[in-house]
Design goal:
Helix content: 40-55%
Radius of gyration: 31 Å
Strand content: under 5%
Structural class: mainly alpha
Distance between the termini: 97 Å
Largest sheet: none
Number of strands: 0
Length: about 70
């Protein structure tokens, strides 16, 4: 009965909601640039490691080679 009589029976509003003055959104240009840089670095790292592994496997002599 008390809950029906008061609109704020359990919770009391301290500050009402307001519309923000500035938009809050992800910076899409920054995300795209960072993703491109990270992808490029990962691609270069993969190529360097792949070439190192290929050159190391071709330069080492095999145990059963005669």
């Amino acid at each position: 009965m008390l809950a029906k009589a008061q609109s704020e029976y359990v919770f009391e509003t301290i500050d009402p909601a307001v519309v923000p003055q500035e938009k809050s959104e992800p910076k899409q240009a920054l995300i795209v640039v960072m993703a491109a840089l990270l992808g490029g670095m990962m691609g270069m790292l993969f190529v360097i490691v792949h070439n190192f592994v290929r050159s190391y496997s071709h330069s080492t002599p095999k145990i059963n080679d005669k």
